[in-house]
Amino acid sequence: MSEETQTADHAVVGYLKELAKRQDRAALAHLRRGLGKRPGEAMGMYPYIGRFISEKTNQSYDRAVFLTSALFADYWEAPSNAGNLGQSVRRLFDETKSDSIEKRFVALLDAEAEDLHYYLRQIVGLLKSKSIPVNWNELFKHIQGWDHPDGYVQKKWARSFWGSTDTNKSQNTNETGEESQ
């Protein structure tokens, strides 16, 4: 059984996947307009994702809703994976052998939460150019946790990118409860 079928999608991600499944190109186009903009600046996104934010949601959650929606709308055909963005970027690096990938990844890891829209757009665009999978549920969760004081998201991505194959396999085992095949 795959990770995707074992773990239910977050409500936002499930909604986005449904838009893609229906091929609602108008909705995806409105959501794409959020690319490169700070979360909440693209007013055309609100009719589609406004139901997921309210006065009761916090800034980290709202940021995750807006960024994930815009990024997903640009790369909705992304293959699924059970890893995190660090693993996807590592795969990109392994395929391209480009030092600029590593430099961009370091810049992303050093980014402030307010600047994630800029760095994530670059990275996901590169992943899209090589048809490398993105785990949208993990990305949503990690955007939410980006500004956590202990930097657990950045550390996790860094371990996934620079860790050995054995380290990454062990990490997947701990995350899913079974080894990835």
Structural commentary:
The chain contains 11 helices and no strands. The protein is 62% helix and 0% strand. It has helices at 3-6, 11-21, 25-32, 46-49, 59-74, 85-96, 99-110, 116-129, 136-144, 152-162, 165-176. It is globular and about 40 Å long. The longest helix has 16 residues, at 59-74. The protein is an all-alpha fold and 181 residues long.
Radius of gyration: 16 Å
Tell me roughly what share of residues is in helical segments: 55-70%
Order of helices and strands: HHHHHHHHHHH
Separation, N- and C-terminal Cα atoms: 11 Å
Biggest beta-sheet profile: none
- The tally of beta strands, per DSSP, is 0
Number of helices: 11
Q: What share of residues are in beta strands?
A: under 5%
Q: What is the 3D form?
A: globular
The mean pLDDT is 88
Low-confidence stretches: 1-6, 175-181
Instruction: Tell me which oligomeric state these chains represent.
Output: single chain
Class computed from helices, strands and strand pairing: mainly alpha
Topology, element by element:
Elements: H1 3-6, H2 11-21, H3 25-32, H4 46-49, H5 59-74, H6 85-96, H7 99-110, H8 116-129, H9 136-144, H10 152-162, H11 165-176
Helix pairs in contact: 2-5, 3-5, 5-9, 6-7, 6-10, 7-8
Brief write-up:
The protein is 62% helix and 0% strand. It is mainly α.
Short descriptors:
disordered N terminus; 181 residues; 62% helix; 11 helices; globular; mainly alpha; single chain; disordered C terminus
